[in-house]
Each structure stands twice: as structure tokens, then as C-alpha cells.
Batch of 2 targets.
Target 1
Amino acid sequence: MPIQLTYELIWRAGMDAGNRSMQVDGRTAWNEDDYEAAVSEFNRLWRSRVKAEEAAT
């Protein structure tokens, strides 16, 4: 059974991507690059969810 991509799960994945970006660069606060990493991951997963919903209809 595939993972259900809920808004909350996608949002958390984006936050994780931003936090990973921050930690890799050794910072304790986000900068613009970390925000971009979070938004990019959120958008990637959100598009995936939308495509899956469209395919199901």
C-alpha cells in the first residue's frame, strides 16, 4: 500500500528538506537557500499528489 501524501506529510517533508539544508551548512537558523529547499521539496511532492489524484479520476 503506497503512502498517502497528505498536506501535513508534504509540509513536514518540506520542513525536513529545509532543516537538512541548514544543518549541512552548519547553521542554526534558516537562510534563503534553506527556504528554497523546503519550497522545492513541497512543490515536488504536491505536484506528485495532484498528478496521482488526476490519474485516479
Note: The chain has one domain: 7-56.
Target 2
Amino acid sequence: MSFWELLAFAGILGIFITVYGIVNGRNTRKILTEEAKHTREILSRMEQEQTEARKETREILSTIAEGQTEARKETAEMRREMAEAIKFLGQLIVSESKKNR
């Protein structure tokens, strides 16, 4: 094999390698672009789900707060009623003790 044949063979091989690299680079770029698109879609869905979860959490916390407020009101009312009942019992005890004297 002469120098010129070897040089021609190397040139042809270089051309094939270059063409393969260009085609492979395009395919790789296409695949990476598609994967980036899928990743963005997944992240977008995750963000929407997080937003929905936060909204549901806020609604639940609001419901809990309303329930606590109502329970506090009911507890205060029950305390008032118990205080009135204790006062009434105290008055009964006093009146009965006055009768027995």
C-alpha cells in the first residue's frame, strides 16, 4: 500500500466518521430536545399537583379553624350554663339552710 493509497483511505475514513458524527449529533440533539420537553411537562404537572395540594391543605386548615372557633363558642356557652347551674344550686342550698334554721 503506497502513501497515496493510505492517504486516500484515511480521507475516505475521515469523511465517513465526519458524516456519522454529524448524523449522530443530530439524533442526539433530537433525543435530548424531546427528553427536555418531557421533563418540562413532568415538572409542570408536579407543580400543578403541588398547587392543588396546597389549596386543599388551606381549605382543610380553614375548616379546622372554623370548627375550633365553633367548639370554643360552644365550650364558652356550656361554661356559662354550668356557672348558672352552680349559682342556682348555691341558691337552693342557701334557701334550704335558711328553712332548716
Note: Residues 1-75 form one domain.
